[in-house]
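Weekly sync, protein design subgroup
Attendees: M.S., D.O., the rotation student, P.L. (late)

Item 1: inverse folding check
M.S. brought a backbone from last month's batch and wanted to see whether the design step gives back something sensible before we order anything. D.O. pointed out we never logged the input encoding, so this time it goes straight into the notes. Structure tokens as presented (191 positions):
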């Protein structure tokens, strides 16, 4: 990462981001007042159903908190759900994926972004993929993903993606033209 700083005219003296790691969801007022990153670590929860339940409970609390507030075009909060493929597991009822889909849509209106992170795009059903406004696709050679990407973005994207170098991705804004290749600037924090 430090080697790529020069590509973006950055000095090689990064500082750590302000943040904290917690084992359970903090109170929403505390979370929204926080100036840094809050990571809710669920690594000690091994059962995928229990893990989905904990995330669903957090999302439900966010939905309850924001439902009486005005709609917002400004981003108030960004929630990143790692291992989002757990929501589409065959072991879970279909209601889990429907809950996630509807919650993401409702929170978006209130200025709360929800980013779903998974190893494979094929983890998500086609209906859910079509509702995703922004897709960030990194290099993959997995044939199932390349076929899904070809159907979603066209054959050009499925040819480019396996050739992407580290630090690059194909970025697609569903409502704004064609997908394009993007070089990601390394993270950088200064006091």
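Designed sequence read out in the meeting:
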């Amino acid at each position: 990462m430090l080697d790529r700083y020069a590509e973006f005219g950055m000095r090689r003296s990064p500082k750590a981001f302000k943040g904290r790691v917690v084992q359970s969801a903090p109170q929403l007022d505390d979370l929204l007042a926080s100036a840094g990153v809050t990571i809710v670590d669920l690594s000690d929860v091994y059962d995928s159903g229990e893990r989905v339940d904990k995330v669903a409970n957090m999302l439900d609390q966010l939905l309850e908190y924001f439902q009486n507030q005005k709609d917002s075009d400004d981003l108030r909060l960004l929630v990143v759900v790692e291992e989002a493929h757990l929501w589409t597991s065959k072991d879970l009822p279909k209601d889990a994926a429907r809950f996630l889909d509807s919650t993401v849509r409702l929170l978006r209106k209130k200025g709360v972004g929800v980013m779903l992170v998974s190893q494979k795009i094929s983890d998500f059903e086609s209906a859910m993929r079509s509702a995703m406004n922004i897709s960030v696709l990194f290099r993959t050679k997995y044939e199932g993903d390349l076929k899904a990407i070809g159907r979603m973005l066209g054959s050009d994207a499925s040819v480019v993606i396996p050739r992407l170098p580290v630090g690059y991705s194909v970025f697609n804004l569903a409502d704004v033209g064609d997908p394009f290749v993007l070089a990601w600037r390394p993270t950088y924090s200064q006091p």
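Discussion: Residues 48-66 form the longest helix (19 residues). The beta strands are 19-22, 37-40, 77-81, 112-116, 134-137, 168-173, 180-183.
Action: P.L. to compare against the previous round before Friday.
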